[in-house]
From TrEMBL, chain A:
<keyword id="KW-0342">GTP-binding</keyword>
<comment type="similarity">
    <text>Belongs to the small GTPase superfamily. Rab family.</text>
</comment>
<keyword id="KW-0653">Protein transport</keyword>
<protein>
    <recommendedName>
        <fullName>Ras-related protein Rab-21</fullName>
    </recommendedName>
</protein>
<dbReference type="GO" id="GO:0005789">
    <property type="term" value="C:endoplasmic reticulum membrane"/>
</dbReference>
<keyword id="KW-0636">Prenylation</keyword>
<dbReference type="InterPro" id="IPR041833">
    <property type="entry name" value="Rab21"/>
</dbReference>
<dbReference type="Pfam" id="PF00071">
    <property type="entry name" value="Ras"/>
</dbReference>
<dbReference type="GO" id="GO:0003924">
    <property type="term" value="F:GTPase activity"/>
</dbReference>
From TrEMBL, chain B:
<keyword id="KW-0479">Metal-binding</keyword>
<feature type="domain" description="A20-type">
    <location>
        <begin position="11"/>
        <end position="45"/>
    </location>
</feature>
<dbReference type="InterPro" id="IPR037191">
    <property type="entry name" value="VPS9_dom_sf"/>
</dbReference>
<feature type="domain" description="VPS9">
    <location>
        <begin position="236"/>
        <end position="379"/>
    </location>
</feature>
<dbReference type="GO" id="GO:0003677">
    <property type="term" value="F:DNA binding"/>
</dbReference>
<keyword id="KW-0175">Coiled coil</keyword>
<feature type="coiled-coil region">
    <location>
        <begin position="430"/>
        <end position="457"/>
    </location>
</feature>
<feature type="region of interest" description="Disordered">
    <location>
        <begin position="60"/>
        <end position="94"/>
    </location>
</feature>
<dbReference type="GO" id="GO:0005085">
    <property type="term" value="F:guanyl-nucleotide exchange factor activity"/>
</dbReference>
Length: 218, 508
């Protein structure tokens, strides 16, 4: 997707999907990040499935759109519809639940297969306030994250730990990706106008379309 | 008989043409004869045509004005006083304006003085058939007018309009192209235009977005008929398949989908109904953006329903099942066509990152889920699923063998049962009331009889006294005492009656 663009005062727009099993705290995590609230009766948003956050990183404006996904097993097959054209993915597991970590591994495999290395991955072990019930070892999780080129974070939505850092780092990496893309575009000079369709397009030759090229074909 | 005959009698004069030309008229021609009717009709048609042309002329004028405005800028970009040349420009424009009306309907072969290669090319393209003018219906005219109004204050408004119009008209020639190629063309056009606008407005992306919205509105209103559910695709077939599928799944309940919504709460069921209405309404809109806002409104109602039911903000885990439930309930018309149309022709930035895009994605997910739905995804056994699908059993009335098992009956059904129970109870009570009423009636009748009897007997017992007031005291005393005792014996149960009158003995 066209997240990049010319000009130094360009606003970046990133799409980040939240993946993970139900009940690992995806929603709490994002509500804590965007509203700084946890299990609060006074949550002002009607919903916690699509949230946006405006950031300013190194003088650049960033619009972050966070897409929550349904975590139930029966909706697993719908994943590709959600994560197409994402710039980043936050994969959440519950440190007290070994199964949820397995699910994350499945997601990583799928994402790498479908989207390659374009997408920035963050693996997040949530609920570190329940460390005494930990079932996923820190070592194993961090080693795994490194092996698949993802960053690993420990968070607690309840105690508000690690969440700011997680999203800030993700944004920085996505910006690096976007800037690398821009440079690539600048060199190749062929602007792939068809990128809007993301994964729907199998292999369309991005022909160098001159300005208003399609009008001339009339 | 006479009056009836008079009713259908028609005077000779009434049959004549109302214009008084002497020929017979006809009701179908508003009482005119064929000759006068033709004349009259011609006049009306002429008037209609004139009106249409007037509108066209007006639009064209506005366009010219916008052009003049724009042209001046492009002619003298370095000129610090763009308005100084305005009048001059305008007069020039007027003189060069030939045959404005035809120009409006048919993309003129007259080359504009503008140096834009793209629009130049399409402008000099072979003159199109009248089909272009045919689909410039009232809606399109409205859209054109609004678009021109919107672009007027922009310095490049004229150029934008020219390009959009040229592109829209060029689409007519691409009718035999596949839907994907057409959408590719439109998307390329969006992309090019927005890139150019970005460089022009130097990063003010909000502004560019609003222009792109208007561009989309203008173009898609005009192209809607051509590109919505085109014959070259199997969209229609898919529509029918989805519709049939949803109809076959009518038995799916809230519990099977784990929808966290309690429809017994009035506000919630209200929101559910509104959500259903909104998702159905999507089909009636022409512009992709308007269709998207229908989906967004539907989603907001769903969130409200969830929030009221669960008392917390809805997450995606709650939202998607509820949306699936709403789609199953609504069975929106031409669902696949609408989804395809939006994917093909919507402004990409809206679809990819915005809130509308998120809800649209969820709708796509819901449709994908419904298409692939099987026993497992509803936590049912394969046999149960097949039974329900074939219509041999229903979760509301489980098969005889499953009578003991607690079947997940729908809330509506349980509500119906509850109300039926209530009705039966009311009926019983009504009967009891009626019974009591009848008893009361009988009692009343008995009582009146009794009272009558008593009055009768009292009257009887007192009559001799009244007739012979001056009878011998001794005998009277005897008889009255006897009578009174007889009366009293009648009234043993009623002690409230005043004591009988005692005869008084007048000595003297």
């Amino acid at each position: 997707m066209a997240a990049g663009g010319a000009g130094s005062n360009k606003t970046y727009s990133f799409k980040v999907v939240l993946l993970g099993e139900g009940c690992v705290g995806k929603t709490s995590l994002v509500l804590r990040y965007c509203e700084n609230k946890f299990n609060d009766k006074h949550i002002t948003t009607l919903q916690a499935s699509f949230l946006t956050k405006k950031l300013n990183i190194a003088g650049k404006r960033v619009n972050l759109a966070i897409w929550d996904t349904a975590g139930q097993e029966r909706f697993h097959a719908l994943g590709p519809i959600y994560y197409r054209d994402s710039n980043g993915a936050v994969l959440v597991y519950d440190i007290t639940d070994e199964d949820s970590f397995q699910k994350v591994k499945n997601w990583v495999k799928e994402l790498r297969k479908m989207l390659g290395n374009e997408i920035c991955l963050c693996i997040v072990g949530n609920k570190i306030d329940l460390d005494k019930d930990r079932h996923v070892s820190v070592d194993e999780a961090e080693r795994y994250a490194e092996s698949v080129g993802a960053k690993h974070y420990h968070t607690s939505a309840k105690l508000n730990k690690g969440i700011e850092e997680l999203f800030l780092d993700l944004c920085k990496r996505m910006m690096e990706n976007a800037q690398a893309d821009e440079r690539l575009k600048g060199n190749g000079s062929s602007q792939s106008a068809s990128s809007w369709r993301g994964v729907q397009i199998v292999d369309d030759d991005p022909q160098a379309t001159p300005a208003g090229g399609c009008c001339s074909s009339g | 008989m006479m009056s009836q005959r008079r009713g259908i009698h028609v005077d000779q004069s009434e049959l004549l043409c109302t214009k008084g030309c002497g020929f017979y008229g006809n009701n179908a021609w508003q009482g005119l004869c064929s000759k006068c009717w033709r004349e009259e009709n011609q006049k009306e048609k002429q008037k209609q045509i004139q009106d249409d042309w007037a509108l066209a002329e007006r639009l064209q004028k506005e366009e010219e004005e916008a052009y003049a405005n724009r042209h001046q800028k492009s002619q003298a970009p370095t000129n610090a006083t763009p308005f100084s040349k305005f009048e001059e420009r305008k007069s020039k424009e007027k003189s060069s304006k030939v045959n404005t009306v035809t120009k409006f309907f048919i993309p003129s072969s007259k080359t504009p003085q503008k140096k834009d290669a793209a629009s130049l090319d399409s402008q000099s393209s072979p003159s199109p058939s009248s089909s272009v003018s045919r689909h410039s219906s009232v809606d399109s005219d409205q859209a054109t007018k609004e678009f021109i109004d919107f672009l007027r204050p922009l310095k490049s408004g004229r150029e934008i309009f020219k390009q959009c119009r040229a592109f829209t008209e060029s689409m007519v020639y691409k009718r035999d192209m596949g839907a994907d190629e057409l959408s590719e063309c439109v998307q390329d056009f969006y992309q090019n235009l927005s890139d150019r606008l970005h460089t022009q407005f130097k990063g003010s992306s909000d502004h560019v977005e609003s222009i792109m919205d208007e561009v989309e509105k203008y173009m898609m209103t005009r192209l809607y008929k051509e590109v919505f559910c085109p014959e070259s695709t199997d969209d229609e077939k898919k529509d029918l398949a989805t519709q049939k599928r949803i109809r076959a799944l009518h038995w799916v309940t809230i519990e099977m989908l784990c929808v966290p919504v309690d429809e017994e709460i009035p506000e919630v069921s209200d929101s559910v109904v509104k959500a259903i209405t909104d998702v159905i309404e999507m089909d009636s809109k022409r512009v992709p953006k308007d269709k998207l806002s229908c989906i967004t409104r539907c989603s907001k109602h769903i969130f409200n329903a969830i929030k009221v039911s669960k008392k917390e903000a809805a997450s995606a885990d709650d939202f998607l099942p509820t949306l699936i439930y709403i789609v199953l309930k609504a069975n929106p018309p031409r669902l696949q066509s609408n989804i395809q149309y939006i994917t093909r022709y919507c402004n990409p930035s809206r679809l990819m990152t915005g809130e509308d895009g998120y809800y649209f994605t969820n709708l796509c997910c819901a449709v994908a889920f419904i298409e692939k739905l099987d026993a497992q995804s509803l936590n049912l056994s394969t046999e149960e699923f097949d039974l329900y699908m074939s219509g041999q059993a229903s979760p509301h009335w489980p098969p005889a063998t499953g009578a003991s098992s607690i079947s997940p009956s729908s809330t509506t059904l349980s509500q119906v049962h509850k109300r039926l129970d209530l009705l039966t109870g009311l009926g019983q009570r009504q009967e009891r009331v009626m019974e009591k009423a009848r008893q009361l009636e009988n009692d009343l009748i008995d009582w009146t009889d009794e009272v009558e009897q008593k009055v009768q007997s009292v009257l009887e017992s007192f009559s001799p006294e009244s007739q012979t007031p001056a009878a011998a005291t001794a005998t009277v005393g005897e008889t009255t005492s006897a009578a009174s005792s007889a009366i009293d014996s009648d009234n043993v149960e009623n002690e409230l009656l005043p004591p009988p009158l005692q005869p008084q003995v007048f000595a003297g």
